[in-house]
Amino acid sequence: MRSTGANGLWASLPRELGERFRPRVDPMARAILQEVQRAVPEYAQPLEGAFGQIITQGIRQAILHCLDSIGVGTVALDTWTTVFRNLGKVEFNEGRSLDCLQTAYRVGGRVAWRHVSEFGQAIGTDADTLCTAAEAIFAYVDEISALSIEGYTAAQARAAGTRARRRRRLLELLLADPPSSPQAIAAQAVNAQWATPAEVTVVALERRPGPHGPAAPDLHDDVLVDLEGAEPCLVTGDPGTHLADLAERLPGWRAVIGPAVRLTDAPRSLLWARRTSRLIQRGVLPDAPVTRCSDHLSTLWLLADEFLVRELCARSLAPFEGLTPKQRARLGETLLIWLQSRGSAPEIAKKLKVHPQTVRYRMHQLIDLFGDRLNNADDRLDMEVALRAEALLATD
């Protein structure tokens, strides 16, 4: 059975046909180039420099390789495979899609067949031989197209890998402690092809428990992201666009969105995002797929220094010492509502869902415990802060 690959098809043709066609190589190469430049506007440029050398070399190499394969089939592959892989790499590096090159190959195949068929008819070649030549030409077009796709894909993968490394380095510089210089960040941003915004938002990430690992994220190309590090995170300069529907874009992750800050303050945004994440882990804040620091600023401020908060609680609520936990809870709840509302006994009773007389009894107890401190604005503020902090810390 005859091979359907280009090499086998060329091998099945008479050797003398190739030798007789050689004087037509240069005219056919010029015709192919002219037709390709007409069909592909991106290639309609002067042929000086690297571009002209590559495209003219590619056309001539293709024709000669086909002629060398006629009646033989086995020729050195390294040179011509390299040429067409390199053409794919050049297309990527020039910023073009593969459509231009694929169109050029198809046009070249049609021109080649026109020249071969005219030659065959002129020398009286039989129809079967001409059909085989046509098959060989178009099989060859498919093969060199595949080689260029390989080269294009390889160049694309290398570029993506290089950019990914540069962007990881940029992320490291943005979040470095001590902070990196603005000059170093700007230089690396150019290297990483990342447009530097005036402000950035940092998102701390944590893998959510589940039977399977987190799914691949669906993030915008301009988001700097590290999902493999010990403390995964991402950075964006456009949170309104890039962080919309973040729960759906990051399945399997818990995301905590830090405050928007100046570019050089990115470590501060990450700091507050991670503090918020730790409060979620402790149960102080509710667990959700996405949490914004901006929704919990008072809690974050209140618990920014837990040592001082506990000192404040101990000093401001010292009169509660000696009470049973149950007594302390009841009186603390009543005191907090009174501090917040300064309402009457019936109003406080309604909020506590108890009898007004119960509130009056508890208020007498509080007056006995705290005395004039209940009339001092600074002391009242300390008490309210302490009671709120105790309520938060009680969830820990």
Structural class: alpha+beta
Q: How many E-type strands?
A: 5
* Major sheet details: 5 strands, mixed
| Count of structural domains | 3
Number of helices: 17
Span of the ends, CA to CA: 78 Å
Strand content: 5-15%
Q: Write the element-wise H/E pattern from the N-terminal end onward.
A: HHHHHHHHEEEHHEHEHHHHHH
> What Rg, in angstroms, do the CA atoms define?
38 Å
What fold name goes in the CATH topology slot of the largest domain?
Globin-like
Task: Report the average pLDDT across residues.
Answer: 87
The low-pLDDT segments are none
Annotated CATH architecture of the largest domain: Orthogonal Bundle
CATH top-level class of the largest domain: Mainly Alpha
Walk across the major sheet and give the strand order.
2-3-1-4-5
Can you give the helix content as a percent range? 55-70%
Estimate the global geometry from the Cα principal axes: rod-shaped
Domain PucR C-terminal helix-turn-helix: 332-389
Organism: Amycolatopsis samaneae
InterPro entries: CdaR-like_regulators (IPR051448), PucR-like_N (IPR058663), PucR_C-HTH_dom (IPR025736), PucR_C-HTH_sf (IPR042070)
Protein name: Helix-turn-helix domain-containing protein
Quick summary:
The protein is α+β, with helices and mostly antiparallel strands and 396 residues long. It is built from 17 helices and five strands.
